[in-house]
Amino acid sequence: MTERKREWIDWVKALLIAFGIAFIVRTFFFAPIVVDGPSMMPTLHDGDQMIVNKFIYDIQEPERFDIVVFHASDKKDFIKRVIGLPGEHVAVKDDNLYIDGDKRKEPFLQERKEDMHSYQTLTGDFQLEDLPGGYETIPDGYVLVLGDNRNNSTDSRMLGLVSMDRVVGQTSFIYWPLDRMRIIHD
């Protein structure tokens, strides 16, 4: 075998290994996603490109206020924020979140609430029993999700609780556009 042919075969092997590693990483560990719509404004903007950590929930449970990607249908994935966890009762009254009767702060909504007029509400009143399924507490293996743009979001208030089997993973890193590149914290 000539030196040139051996070099060509080495390049082909290297490319196949690189594509194989990329396929494994994308399939099992990380994937890109593009935000589609205004439901997570102002935290996420339409067109933001993010990385989804697909394995995080294999090693830990979701936490309140994680931003997750889930299969809303066979053809559509949604990005929303985890508000309620298994075993909890969730209610919103007068734009305040209550978990098991205790008022909780939602710091990511503060700026939006400050911009609103006194007669406006960001989140209409509801309690867990009002949502599809009529649960009194969130069952094991499910989470309640809401968009940050509460008055313009299709979320658990319409879709019901989200099964962890439908959750693709957690996302917290915007990589495009460059001027919005950042890691999102609560």
TrEMBL record:
Q: Where in the cell is it found?
A: Cell membrane; Membrane
Q: Please give the catalytic activity noted in the UniProt record.
A: Cleavage of hydrophobic, N-terminal signal or leader sequences from secreted and periplasmic proteins
| Membrane association type | Single-pass type II membrane protein
- According to its UniProt record, what is one Pfam family this protein matches? Peptidase_S26
Every copy of the Peptidase S26 domain together lies at: 8-176
Record field: transmembrane: 12-35
Q: What is its EC number?
A: 3.4.21.89
Q: Which UniProt keywords apply?
A: Hydrolase, Membrane, Protease, Transmembrane, Transmembrane helix
InterPro entries, A to Z: LexA/Signal_pep-like_sf, Pept_S26A_signal_pept_1, Pept_S26A_signal_pept_1_CS, Pept_S26A_signal_pept_1_Lys-AS, Peptidase_S26
Which domain of life does the UniProt lineage start with?
Bacteria
Q: What is its main location?
A: membrane
The entry's family comment says:
Belongs to the peptidase S26 family.
What is this protein called in UniProt? Signal peptidase I
What organism does the record attribute this protein to? Lentibacillus halophilus
Q: Which gene encodes it?
A: lepB_2
